[in-house]
Specification:
The complex is a heterodimer of chains A (786) and B (292). Chain A is of the alpha+beta class. In chain A, helix 11 packs parallel to helix 19. Helices cover 28% and strands 23% of the residues of chain A. The radius of gyration of chain A is 28 Å and the shape is globular. Chain B folds into three domains: 46 residues, Uridine Diphospho-n-acetylenolpyruvylglucosamine Reductase, domain 2 (2-Layer Sandwich); 111 residues, Uridine Diphospho-n-acetylenolpyruvylglucosamine Reductase, domain 3 (2-Layer Sandwich); 105 residues, 2-Layer Sandwich (Enolase-like, domain 1). In chain B, helix 5 packs antiparallel against helix 8, helix 9 packs antiparallel against helix 10 and helix 10 runs antiparallel to helix 11. Classes of the chains: A alpha+beta (786), B alpha+beta (292). Chains A and B meet through helix 4, helix 9 and helix 20 of A and helix 11 of B. The structure holds flavin-adenine dinucleotide. Flavin-adenine dinucleotide binds next to strand 2, helix 2, helix 7 and strand 10 of chain B.
């Protein structure tokens, strides 16, 4: 790895100029000739109701209206907006039991904001004015907002094929006793000296990406369905739309517009089905659909909220003997990612500590909340909130230092990772813990904050995490990459990996330049057209650099091999005797025998024949590299966060003073990009643990699907923060890199909760930990004492 | 539910106060005045519709912020939060107002939002309004038939409702000159830094050495309008401010307020911490704006 020229450097990001100057073209900026506008009529009066009448007639008469569409005017086919079913093999699909239960428009409203009908008009104004004229009457149905309510025997059933409103539980066939488990927990608990147990609540956090969903679709004169979208998963959405509208893939084209943030909110389809359905109704005319923030909120998925119970047993010497857990999530109105998150939430739990035995159960219940799906971390932040607080409670009872305990009992190389049977192949968590602890002065502060009595009390807490780079072997990680060598020896990389702002097009370009041995400037990334690019599973699970980078590396190696083969032929030397420097291929030890890459590239296209003799010169043809790449592993990233907080005992207010994040990133291809991911992750993690929650009233009406009343951490709320990048190259990652997209959000959650515990001696079991909850807990403790 | 499309309206651009009040006289309740627009535009994107919007953008003379040691502070209808923050006079003589402007909204908002707009919005959470309530002031209202003055104490009638008649334009607010020994402060509690208040408090104390001669104490987010706390003011009158007195004040506050549960906080929480907030804002005033 020595002597890297582009990898590890803070090169200029490919997207930065356009974004900073306002030149970036988001879907909302795309204007097409003859554009029409769609407006969807949603139910904002009820969270659960049956449509008893729908009158479109007045709307149809409005000025500028082209068409008004009800449920019967569009495809009746049901679909599942999630792409999980396309990420697993056919056998696994059957086992998971994912179902198609969404429709374009519905007559059975299952959540606040469900779609009823739509208007297509010549302007946004006309569409909206007409939409106001659509008359709908409803019959109210009982509302089920929690798993507890939805599983009640008398509850109305959401889907006949999912009795008890149990959308998903770990299937017996793959998970005996419906549990992700090893050992025998009951036996192990019997041998425990200390047992801790509690029930927690994790919140319905929203991604809050900057760009609200905007889509354009056009059913063109070639009978092709074109969709402009900022999806994270172009190739899977292409296939999903092909299935839904019963078209061959050659007749569905996705154009990726600049993505204004994803974090999981665009993992799978969001309003692509609705937009395409509108476009199919007006062939030849493009239709644009712009969501307001409130609409984006209730149509794109959130994090899975729910009740999370956990029990841990330890021996007196600290040995973790057993962990038993159950996460019952409040799935929302439709199936979407019911299976995925219910499983991974336990996978992260299983991947962390060396319990003698462990049992995790994950269940997804239909509720009348808006849907949950992918969100940065995919179950990991939920587990961190619960698992790390339980570990600290255990440590408190054992009287051991939380860092010491974690250092001793975390899983490492050779232990089973988050997927039982797939051992970790790299782990630098010890170094993360050591460096974070030294950076913040853990030992001194922990001692100092022991016996505080003042109004304002400080606390310091730690949390660790394991994550993944792509989801091999659970999901079929795969990226196809083409590398086109131009006549002038510059290259274009063609693939479908999307950049949601995480910097992947920059780091992939660095990987390409480094592998080719070319300057960064000689590489161009061509991305975003599903007509041109081969398969890519999509940007999820911290995998774009790890898997996409693997594909880029392999395809560029293919180019390099072809270059060296041609040079060997030309120079009449063995390939093994050649080396490249500044795009010139030399013969070792012979200073005058060389050929430039430029000559080879030019020769193959412009100069491959002697015009007089007709004899071929060199090897004719344009050089093109190709890879259809499957990663051999999931290069586990590890990380530790130490948080220091100040709690006001009179108001319950928490101020986060400092955060130190130390992450095992394998190799930082672009350190600035990695730091950006850790900063942004921490900001969302702090929001989840301290302020973010979606609130509903008892009728299921959402009360804060907007930025006035949904409160995230902003820049002015952020503490002093240090990011420590521990570079311990992973044997399978491109140049040793591991995924960093999700890791940053995870340990700030547990570390902050533990710092509060350290400051006030009470664990708050429900996130977000608001001042209201802290003050209540302090009052209850006081009462208990007096 | 907000919309990307606003209801249609005519934008009227008067070039003088007299033109503005003439327009108000003819359009009456079918018109809204636009100052910084940070409340009005939010309402227009939500569900508010009005036929005419009368913008103050071209009306000269309303952007004056003047201080005179005798006459006090005059805040014109187009004076923004940034104007307040830039004023050394406000910072020195009316710290409560300066502190409210400092934490108010975001930099972008502070560039356009006006102090008078905050008063006219009549929100029970208004930060500058609350600071001014404690400092005391008189609002000048003008209509085609003349001018009148209304004391802030009589201005807010109920949630979002003021004593302004719909043909009146607010011209300026007059805040009395501080007497020697006047100390004031503002403090608020929010969910995150950039937020609307979930609880706020402001005080203006007339001090003679360690003794408080009289006080105005006001709170927000504890009822349909901003409120004053007469019992607390009475405790402070002619009193030395001791830890015991502060405790008595803190214990009294809850009996003077009637907060509700809403998305920002709960009634219970507000009742519990209101006393703490008032105690702390008094300390802040005494310490000249420094915490502790
Ligand atoms: C993101 C955001 C953050 C905010 N944060 C805060 C905050 O921290 N604290 C806070 O208190 N408020 C906050 N607000 C609310 C708002 O910014 C303030 O109330 C502001 O002071 C309003 O002033 P304006 O000039 O923008 O008023 P406008 O919107 O122009 O007007 C407000 C109302 O007053 C009327 N009006 C204005 N001027 C006159 C006049 N001269 N005569 C008669 N009627 C008049 C208008 O017709 C309208 O009804 C926030 C708003 C937003 C959007």
């Amino acid at each position: 790895m020595e002597d890297l020229k582009v990898v590890g450097k803070r090169v200029e990001r490919v997207d930065v100029r356009a974004k900073v100057t306002g030149g970036a073209l988001y879907a909302a900026d795309v204007q097409l000739a003859g554009m029409l506008y769609g407006k969807i009529v949603r139910c904002y009066d009820h969270a659960h109701a049956r449509v008893t009448s729908l009158d479109l007639s007045e709307a149809a008469k409005c000025k500028g209206v082209i068409k008004v569409l009800g449920p019967k005017d569009v495809t009746q086919k049901e679909y599942n907006a999630s792409v999980l079913d396309m990420m697993v093999s056919a056998d696994m699909r059957g086992v998971l039991g994912d179902i198609d239960d969404q429709s374009i428009f519905t007559d059975h409203v299952k959540h606040y904001g469900d779609a009823i009908a739509a208007v297509i008009a010549t302007s946004e104004e006309a569409a909206e004015r007409a939409a106001e004229k659509i008359r709908v009457t409803y019959e109210e149905l009982p509302v089920y907002m929690t798993a507890e309510a939805a599983k009640h025997p008398d509850a109305l059933q959401f889907r006949p094929e999912k009795p008890g409103n149990l959308a998903f539980q770990l299937p017996e066939m793959a998970f005996p006793d419906n549990a992700y488990a090893w050992g025998d927990v009951e036996d192990s608990f019997a041998g425990a000296d200390i047992i801790v147990e509690d029930s927690f609540y994790v919140p319905k956090q929203k991604q809050c990406q900057m760009e609200p969903g905007t889509y354009i679709a056009l059913y063109d004169d070639q009978k092709r369905l074109n969709c402009w979208t900022s999806t994270q998963m172009p190739k899977l959405v292409q296939k999903k739309l092909a299935n839904l509208f019963e078209l061959p893939m050659t007749r569905v084209r996705i154009n990726i517009t600049v993505i204004g943030g994803g974090f999981g909110a665009r993992l799978g389809m969001v309003l692509e089905p609705e937009t395409c359905a509108l476009a199919m109704a007006v062939p030849g005319r493009p239709v644009k659909l712009l969501s307001t923030r409130e609409e984006d909120w209730v149509t794109s998925p959130s994090r899975h909220p729910g009740k999370y119970w956990m029990k841990m047993g330890f021996k007196k010497d600290g040995t973790p003997v057993a962990c038993d857990a159950r996460f019952e999530n409040y799935k929302g109105a439709y199936y979407v990612d019911a299976s995925g998150t219910a499983f991974t939430t336990g996978a992260w739990l299983g991947g962390m500590y060396k319990f003698d035995s462990l049992r995790y159960r994950g269940e997804s219940y239909y509720t009348n909340q808006s849907i949950c799906g992918a969100f940065r971390g995919y179950g990991n932040p939920q587990t961190n909130f619960v698992m790390e607080q339980m570990v600290d409670r255990g440590c408190a009872e054992l009287g051991v230092d939380p860092i010491e305990w974690r250092r001793k009992w975390h899983k490492t190389i050779g232990d089973d990772g988050w997927c039982i049977g797939v051992p970790y192949n790299s782990c630098a968590l010890d170094e993360c813990l050591d460096r974070a602890s030294a950076a913040i002065g853990w030992t001194e502060k922990r001692a100092k904050y022991k016996n505080q009595t003042g109004t304002v009390r400080r606390g310091i807490g730690v949390a660790v995490m394991n994550h993944t780079s792509g989801a091999m072997p659970m999901l079929l990680e795969h990226t196809v990459c083409d590398v086109l060598m131009h006549q002038d020896a510059t290259v274009t990389i063609n693939l479908a990996c999307s950049d949601m702002g995480q910097g992947s097009h920059t780091t992939l370009r660095q990987v390409a330049a480094e592998t080719l041995g070319f300057p960064y400037e000689d590489v161009h990334m061509s991305v975003g057209d599903t007509d041109a690019a081969g398969f890519d599973i999509g940007a999820h699970a911290s995998r774009t650099l790890y898997v996409g980078g693997g594909a880029v590396k392999q395809a560029c190696e293919d180019v390099r091999r072809q270059l060296f083969d041609r040079a060997a032929l030309e120079l009449e030397e063995d390939v093994g005797n050649l080396y490249m420097e500044d795009k010139i291929i030399h013969v070792k030890g012979s200073s005058n025998k060389s050929i430039s890459v430029q000559t080879i590239a030019d020769q193959g296209v412009n100069n491959f024949m002697n015009p007089e003799t007709g004899e071929l010169i060199g090897q004719p043809g344009q050089i093109q590299g190709y890879a259809s790449f499957f990663p051999p592993h999931n290069a586990p990233p590890f990380g530790a966060t130490i948080a220091e907080v100040e709690v006001d005992m009179e108001t319950g207010e928490v101020r986060v003073i400092e955060l130190v994040n130390a992450h095992d990133v394998g190799r930082a291809i672009h350190p600035g990009v990695v730091e950006g991911q850790l900063d942004g992750g921490a900001q969302q993690g702090l929001g989840m643990v301290l302020t973010e929650e979606t609130y509903y009233d008892d009728k299921g009406i959402c009360l804060n699907n907007n930025f006035t009343d949904y409160k995230m951490f902003g820049p002015s709320d952020m503490p002093k923060m240090t990011n420590i990048l521990v570079e311990n190259p992973d044997p399978t990652g491109p140049f040793g890199a591991k995924g960093v997209g999700e890791a940053g959000i995870v340990p700030p959650v547990g570390a902050t909760a533990n710092a509060i515990f350290n400051a006030i001696g009470i664990q708050i079991l429900e996130a977000p930990i608001t001042p209201e909850k802290i003050l209540k807990a302090l009052a209850e403790k006081e009462k208990g004492l007096s | 539910m907000t919309s990307r499309v606003m209801a249609e309206f005519d934008l009227l651009l008067p070039y003088s106060v007299s033109e503005a009040v003439t327009l108000l006289a003819s359009h009456g309740d079918k018109a809204a005045v636009l100052a910084g627009g940070t409340d009005l535009l939010v309402a227009l994107k939500f569900d508010y519709a009005v036929e005419n919007i009368i913008s103050l953008a071209q009306v000269p003379g309303l952007d004056k912020l003047t201080y005179d040691p005798e006459g006090g502070l005059t805040i014109g209808a187009r004076v923004t939060l940034v104007d307040i923050l830039k004023s050394a006079d406000v910072k020195e003589h009316y710290p409560a107002l300066w502190q409210a402007a400092k934490v108010f909204a975001t930099p972008q908002l502070r560039n356009t939002a006006t102090v008078l707009g905050n008063i006219l919005r009549a929100s029970p959470a208004g930060d500058c309004s609350l600071a001014l309530y404690a400092l005391g002031g008189t609002l000048t209202l003008e209509s085609a038939s003349g001018r009148r003055e209304v004391d802030l104490d009589d201005f807010w009638l109920s949630y979002g409702v003021t004593a302004r008649k719909n043909d009146e334009l607010a011209i300026a607010l007059q805040v009395p000159a501080p007497q020697a020994g006047q100390k004031s402060a503002f403090r608020r509690m929010t969910r995150v830094t950039e937020d609307l208040s979930k609880l706020n408090a402001a005080v203006c104390l007339q001090m003679d050495g360690d003794k408080c001669l009289s006080a105005r104490v006001a709170m927000g987010c504890v009822g349909p309008t901003l409120v004053r706390l007469p019992k607390v003011e009475k405790i402070l009158r002619q009193a030395g401010i001791t830890p015991d007195l502060l405790q008595e004040i803190s214990d009294t506050v809850a009996s003077e307020i009637a907060p509700i549960d809403d998305i920002r906080s709960s009634a219970d929480y507000r009742l519990k911490v209101a006393g703490v907030l008032v105690k702390r804002v008094i300390m802040l005033a005494l310490n000249g704006g420094n915490d502790q």
